[in-house]
Amino acid sequence: MASVLGKNILFLWFCFLYVVSNAQVNEMLIDVRKPFAEIQPTMYGLFFEDINYGADGGLYAELIKNRSFEFPQHLMAWKTFGKVALKNDGPFERNPHYVRLSNPGHAHKHTGIENEGYFGIGIKKDEDYRFSVWARLPEGEAHSKIRIELVNPRSVTETHALASSEIIIDAKEWKKYTVVLKPVVNEEKSILRIFLTSPVPVDLEHVSLFPVKTWKERENGLRNDLAQALADIHPGVFRFPGGCIVEGTDLETRYDWKKTIGPVENRPLNENRWHYTFPHRFYPDYYQSLGLGFYEFFLLSEDIGAAPLPVLSCGLACQFQNDKKEAHVDVAHLGPYIQDALDLIAFANGDVNSEWGKKRAEMGHPAPFNLKFIAIGNEQWGPEYPEHLEPFVKAIRKVYPNIQIIGSSGPNSEGDQFDYLWPEMKRLKVDLVDEHFYRPETWFLSQGTRYDNYDRKGPKVFAGEYACHERGKKWNHFHASLLEAAFMTGLERNADIVHMATYAPLFAHVEGWQWRPDMIWFDNINSVKTASYYVQQLYSHNRGSHVLSLTMGQKPVAGTEGQNGLFASAAWDAKAREIIVKVVNTSDNAQSLSLNFKGLKKGEKLNGLTATSLHSDGPDKDNSIEFPSLIAPQKKAIRIEGAIYNAVLEAQTFTVYKFAVK
Ligand code: AHR
């Protein structure tokens, strides 16, 4: 048996050698003499939107859903038992609802409330969870008591409670009470239960539960594993808060950044359009608490070393959902929207003594956030978009001439709207134009040269949302990620005009997604990095500072005719004095590669460093919560003789080669 297996392996190895030795050698020429365009530090970044429970229920570490009882169905996500009444004259003006728990009337009966969390409440053994609640007593009472439990209602052990603690309420004024719970087991789907354990009634408002170990241990913090995954990319830019949620289904539900700052208890609830955008993926309990607001977005950008890039409404509600003029703000009445943009820049960068700088300082960040970019409008189109954008551009230029403004080329990567909007963006002299492309594999394979002939005199490009959506396979799988890697060689080669690129969407909860594919998936406890994540990471970690010319038969390697499905780009890292070559073999065959470096100075010598490859043993596979490490970059040391490096490119593989110039 063993010898049959051995023979088969030997046979396959010979076939492989035969294929490689008989195929043509793909000779790529890299000119190291003239690093030309600079590759911007912002080149590879992240785009965040609260879609797929990306914020509430995801990155934002709050575990209680509808914590302020402000969902339109005020007790959604809650169960009540005993004597519970809903009230609406609470201490927080923009969130006035709260609950009153009263004596159920018999010692053996109970009053209380239960919260289901987001698809349950994920808790980990021996970790600390900070429970907090705003509470008060009725007039004339001295104290009351509540017991807080994290419960597994399906538990077969003697008790349902996995952690529990008590709080004595001792004031008739509203006050915040806090206690730390430490579960004794891991549980992905616990619930929070609060019992009134005194005959004296209590009022409860803003019920909250956070892991103590959030990202950077901030109280109103972010889920550690998810924020860490973002930091691990080393992103150059962070675009937020969307996407379509910027625009709103109507203007009332647009993303209004001013509502997202200040104490979280008083940030008003907003509808999340993704709750109903796709009726076949309907999530009636999907709202935005805005607990993850603009201050937190700026802070996260700073923490992960990315330039913040906020996107604001231009006064046009989502055009997919509104075709009537009345749904939008009339240009003559855009004043408050424009003021929002100016105030945002002031909030981010203003002096602590200025109105908006003071607000930032009061939230804990006296130093400016160093905002350099602002985008106005998401996927807007038609003449109404430039009409709306123009007054923003004028006002921002006047007050903040150094802020770079980003306009949109609409929702499509080509076509009438795209062709109309690009010249309009040039006319308005925006700094960058945001392009979006969720396109099939044929598109990604054919767009390797997309930017080679773009006008170098106009605005720069921000590939603000993109992902390969293969026909009939709109889910994460390796082949789509491979084509993204292939396409990205064209972004890099054209780094003189492409200044930013952000894959989309970023996050998805396995039980709550509306849109696939996505870059990072998670459940209540675990998260998983997809092959697309690793593509982004490989580009970002191997960015380089300048583009180098790389050609095959005097042409860029962009998957064009006669190029055997190969895509490639090269960069120079001036600081590390390294040459980085990225090669994507999209074909089904292993191929020979020869990298020829020309233009080394006298006395300079190349040292082979590493080849890092991303490959899958099946094009339809990807990492999952169950198997998180099926596909991950594999690094090996390489050697080079003189100025020529020869290698075999495995079929369907993305490889990053690094060489040091000594
Ligand atoms: O990324 C999902 C959506 O795709 C974004 O909200 C929108 O900008 C685009 O249409």
List the uncertain runs.
Answer: 1-5, 9-22
CATH classification class of the largest domain:
Alpha Beta
**Rg over CA atoms:** 28 Å
Summarize the amount of helix as a percent range.
Answer: 10-25%
Q: For this structure, what is the CATH homologous superfamily of the largest domain?
A: Glycosidases
Quick description:
Helix content is 19%, strand content 31%. The chain has 662 residues and is of the alpha/beta class.
Which terms would index this structure?
alpha/beta; 3 domains; binds alpha-L-arabinofuranose; 11 helices; single chain; 34 strands; globular; 10-stranded mixed β-sheet; 662 residues
Write up what this structure looks like.
- Strands 1, 26, 27, 28, 29, 30, 31, 32, 33 and 34 form a ten-stranded mixed sheet that branches.
- 48% of the residues are buried.
- The protein has three domains: 22-39 and 546-661, Golgi alpha-mannosidase II (Immunoglobulin-like), CATH 2.60.40; 44-61 and 216-541, TIM Barrel, CATH 3.20.20.80; 78-211, Jelly Rolls.
- Helix content is 19%, strand content 31%.
- Helix 9 links the parallel strand 20 and strand 21.
- It has 662 residues and is an alpha/beta fold.
- The protein binds alpha-L-arabinofuranose (AHR).
- Residues 49, 51, 242-244, 378-379, 411, 436, 465, 504-505, 515 line the site of alpha-L-arabinofuranose.
Explain the layout of strands and helices.
Layout: H1 2-22, E1 25-31, E2 44-47, E3 78-81, E4 83-87, E5 98-102, E6 111-115, E7 121-123, E8 129-136, E9 144-151, E10 161-169, E11 175-181, E12 187-196, E13 202-211, H2 224-231, E14 237-240, H3 244-247, E15 270-271, E16 287-288, H4 294-304, E17 307-312, H5 335-349, H6 355-362, E18 373-376, H7 384-399, E19 404-408, H8 416-427, E20 432-439, H9 441-446, E21 460-468, H10 478-493, E22 498-503, E23 507-509, E24 520-522, E25 527-529, H11 531-541, E26 546-552, E27 555-556, E28 566-573, E29 578-585, E30 591-598, E31 606-615, E32 634-637, E33 644-649, E34 653-661
Helix pairs in contact: 5-6, 10-11
The protein binds alpha-L-arabinofuranose.
